[in-house]
Amino acid sequence: MSDSNKPAGSLNRRDLLKVISLAPAVAVAPGLAARASAAPHFGAGDPDAPGAPYQPKFLNPHQWKTVSLLCGLIIPADERSSSAAEAGVPAFIDDFANLRGEKVQTMLSGGLAWLDWRCNRDYARDFADCTAAQQKETLDSIAYPEKAKPEDAFGVVFFSELRGLIMEGFYTSKEGIKDLQYMGNKMVADWEGCPENVTSRLGVNYSHWKHWKS
After folding, report:
1. HSE-up of 69 (CA within 13 Å, CB side)?
2. SS3 128
3. Across residues 83-112, what is the average pLDDT?
4. At what angle do helices 102-123 and 61-74 cross, to 10 degrees?
């Protein structure tokens, strides 16, 4: 999950997550993330008691700790915004699971249990109690489906679902919208497309469109 070996000019992991999050949700994760927009985003507070800390409705304390850790690992804090954990995404996930019922709850509980089982097998401790290096090694083994071992298939599906849900939660939060630097719709006299420094990083250009326009 490291960006240390990425080629110069390529998107870093956080930017890539941002691009993916703007695609149709079904293309991100056909399960949980595709349905996440139906759940209200409550951030870090309790919607039933404004200003009070959020009280988990579905996740038990150990699951809450693990989900919070995963949120911070998948979308960490950077110079522009806080992490997904600090943006209130664990509350979003908990409330989404509570609203959506058994199917989502089974996937979430089962996936978190699998993650602990896997870490206990390899390191004799739960995921939340592993070292940062052990956590990274575990997540790397299920973050890339094409490289994952067949016996890790369930973990791959779970991680894909959870990652999509975390992205959905973060980029619909105040912190995530700020991170996107979305300024809202603005009237313009002429549409020139996205800035070249952005399109070049994505490997696209407007040359064909500009030729047609002229």
Report:
1. 19
2. helix
3. 89
4. 80
Check pLDDT > 50 for residue 118.
Answer: yes
Q: Are 57 and 100 in contact (CB under 8 A)?
A: no
Q: Model's pTM, two decimal places? A: 0.65
| Residue 42: C-alpha distances to residues 45, 91, 95, 166 (Å) | 6, 7, 8, 14
Helix (H, G, I), strand (E, B) or coil at 167: helix
Confidence label for 114 from pLDDT (cuts 50, 70 and 90): very high
DSSP structure class, residue 87: T
As a whole number of angstroms, the distance between CA 96 and CA 86 comes to 17
Per the listing, tokens 């016996």 go with 151
Contact 161, 107 (CB under 8 A): yes
Q: Where are the alpha helices (DSSP H) in the chain?
A: 13-21, 25-28, 32-35, 61-74, 89-100, 102-123, 132-143, 153-170, 174-180, 196-202, 207-213
Which band of pLDDT confidence, cut at 50, 70 and 90, is reported for residue 150? very high
Distance of CA 145 to the CA centre of its chain: 16
Which tokens in the block code for residue 81?
A: 């915004």
Query: Is the pLDDT score of 60 beyond 60?
Result: yes
pLDDT, mean of residues 119-130? 95
Q: Which residues pair with 46 in a beta bridge?
A: 49
Q: Residue 6 — left, alpha, or beta (φ > 0 → left; ψ -120 to 50 → alpha)?
A: beta
